[in-house]
Specification:
The complex is a heterodimer of chains A (255) and B (354). Helix content of chain A is 35%, strand content 17%. By secondary structure, chain A is of the alpha/beta class. Chain B is α/β, with parallel strands linked by helices. Chain B folds into two domains: 218 residues, Rossmann fold; 114 residues, Rossmann fold (3-Layer(aba) Sandwich), CATH 3.40.50. Helices cover 42% and strands 20% of the residues of chain B. Chain B contains twelve helices and 15 strands. The N and C termini of chain B lie far apart (43 Å). Classes of the chains: A alpha/beta (255), B alpha/beta (354).
Chain lengths: 255, 354
């Protein structure tokens, strides 16, 4: 008999996330991957600043809370302290990773730092109440883009997977979503691979997860999942952007 | 007697750090401290350590935060503008009670300032430098020998109190060469059961954190941290007294300013002026007791600084303004001459009718 139970790497505590937020699903996928790979006892997670700031209370492995955007640098330090033993992952939102922490992200990738990054892109600053994110879509209404994101005034969204895929450094870059069951399954596979790569010493692996924010998008949870499908995914196409070991390297194709 | 080697101050810091068991160094190039990074780049790969040139000062201090979280001795070094960038990370280290060593080989400021020696980061160092209520242990070497010695002491104190230690040096001491002995007894790092080294599935998870959303809890952690600081102030304040017997004119100077001042004090004594020097070795905790004791004979004090007057405030606080305290300074990379300091001593002697 298969019992659908809480993964061991997730603690039995209530999450603070809003109803309909997909952080819960992603936490679960990370914890399942840790369980299945049998690495909880040697894993250290780094929590960001943002909605998932208190992830350190939810994961059962050792946890560190980093300054805003600095998680890849903190992870670099932890990993370098005991590279043969420790498995290190960061869990970061879009403001954290793609705005204030862009430099730390790019350079950890360029160094092919042997860490795993779970990057949650929900196109908005959730924790602070719904401001425009580096990944907010053109025209998206937020608290700080009340007339819609005007690309003439505030530029275009940052596409992290596409951008990092131009670097020689990183091993694995994939964008997934969790708005449908098939997408959740694909996300799980990518997240597990991102941890497996680290175990195998292959290097920097980042999984961008398109997430939803019903509260700050002003939608029902169901409508928010639809908006992921209809607005987010067309702008942020899902797929593997780089997988060095599998020969998926942008620009390597013949003309 | 132990063998001495001729070294630059910055190199002495690096070698001492390695002796102290530091195997992780993260830095970003900036004059006048780059010799530390260069030394580490050469040595660390040979001894199984990590030298990593970070993408920024901000990244470097956060890498320090990571290694310290994992329980290892770790350091970074920079100079004034770079230390400002590290301020965020230093505040987080304090908030998470993590031990680390940070070297500030000071240069003139504000802004990009210059690349010549300065002591104008005194406030930044002794008051914390970043946001929130906290202190670092601040050590002020005045020789290449002390660059080595205080580096080791810095690691030991950092581990003992779970605090950041800062070596507050300057471009002169960093760059000058002197003979130095590395014959030290070194306390090994203590057990760190709080470190995030993996649970091994044998204990509940450790959390390194500086976030407390409940105000009463945050208040409690701040108060507990200041109780620890009170112990540091009680036990670790340190100064050197030079020609303080019956001193009526007491000079206060640290680092390179103290080297100059010693010569001036000696010259003043030769002229029959009862001058003496208190050289704070710890800037935080400030060695107040030495100044209180000096009030027994002192009639005036002079603070000699490479700043517009920063340590002078601590001298006034330590003496509770009971006697006049004046300032003799050069800034912007300039260093006061022995003659300038002697001149200030003579004027004070005239005022007190010595």
């Amino acid at each position: 008999m298969v019992v659908f139970d809480r993964p061991h790497a997730l603690l039995d505590v209530p999450f603070h996330y809003c109803p309909g937020c997909t952080h819960g699903i992603i936490h679960r996928l990370v914890a399942e991957a840790i369980d299945e790979l049998g690495i909880e006892g040697r894993t250290v997670g780094i929590a960001p600043v943002g909605c998932s700031v208190m992830a350190y209370d939810y994961f059962g492995c050792d946890m560190i809370e980093a300054a805003h955007g600095r998680a890849p640098a903190v992870a670099t330090g932890v990993k370098r302290s005991d590279p043969d033993h420790l498995i290190v992952f960061t869990y970061q939102g879009d403001g954290d990773l793609a705005s204030i922490g862009t430099a730390e992200t790019v350079h950890a990738a360029a160094r092919n730092e042997n860490i795993t990054i779970i990057f949650i892109n929900n196109a908005i600053y959730g924790m602070t109440g719904g401001q425009m994110a580096p990944t907010s879509l053109p025209g998206q209404v937020t608290q700080t883009s009340p007339y819609g994101r005007d690309v003439k005034a505030c530029g275009y969204p940052v596409k992290i997977c596409e951008m990092l895929s131009q670097l020689e450094g990183p091993e694995y870059l994939a964008r997934v979503a969790v708005n449908t069951v098939p997408h959740v399954r694909a996300a799980k596979k990518a997240i597990k691979k991102a941890f497996q790569n680290q175990i195998d010493g292959k290097g920097f692996s980042l999984v961008e997860v398109i997430s939803s924010c019903p509260t700050n998008w002003g939608m029902t949870p169901e409508k928010a999942l639809q908006w992921v499908e209809e607005a987010m995914i067309p702008y942020y196409p899902l797929g593997v952007y780089k997988d060095r070991s599998a020969g998926i390297i942008p620009g390597a194709k013949e003309a | 007697m132990a063998e001495k080697v001729l070294m630059k101050g910055n190199e002495a810091i690096a070698e001492a750090a390695i002796l102290a068991g530091c195997r992780h160094y993260f830095g970003y190039p900036i004059t006048p401290q780059t010799e530390i990074a260069a030394y580490m780049a050469k040595r660390m790969p040979k001894i199984g350590g990590t030298f990593l040139q970070a993408e920024s000062e901000i990244a470097a201090i956060n890498m320090v935060y990571g290694v310290s979280s994992a329980g290892k001795r770790v350091m970074t070094s920079s100079s004034s503008p770079g230390i400002s960038l590290k301020g965020e990370g230093i505040s987080y280290l304090a908030g998470a009670d993590l031990p680390a060593l940070v070297v500030n080989c000071q240069r003139g400021g504000p802004g990009l300032g210059g690349i010549q020696p300065s002591q104008s980061d005194y406030f930044q160092a002794t008051r914390g430098g970043g946001h929130g209520d906290y202190h670092m242990i601040v050590l002020a070497p005045d020789s290449v020998q002390e660059m080595a010695q205080l580096t080791i002491k810095g690691f030991e104190l950092a581990d003992e109190y779970r605090m950041t230690s800062m070596i507050l040096a300057d471009g002169t001491i960093g760059q000058m060469m002197e003979p130095v002995s590395f014959d030290f007894e070194i306390k090994e790092a203590p057990e760190k059961p709080w470190a995030t080294t993996g649970t091994g599935m044998k204990r509940p998870h450790n959390i390194i954190n500086s976030l407390y959303l409940k105000p009463e809890k945050l208040e409690e952690t701040n108060i507990a941290r200041y109780e620890k600081y009170a112990v540091v102030e009680e036990k670790e304040a340190l100064a050197e007294e030079y020609m303080m017997d019956g001193a009526e004119i007491v000079l206060a100077a640290f680092g390179i300013a103290a080297r100059v001042t010693k010569n001036a004090v000696k010259a003043a004594r030769a002229e029959g002026i009862k001058a003496g020097l208190i050289r704070p070795v710890t800037l935080w905790p400030f060695p107040k007791a030495y100044f209180e004791k000096a009030l027994g004979t002192a009639k005036e004090m002079i603070s000699i600084e490479l700043s517009m007057g920063q340590m002078i405030e601590d001298v006034r606080l330590a003496t509770q303004c009971r006697i006049p305290v004046s300032l003799t300074k050069r800034v912007g990379g300039m260093i006061p001459s022995v003659e300038e300091v002697l001149c200030a001593i003579r004027k004070a002697a005239e005022r007190i009718g010595d």
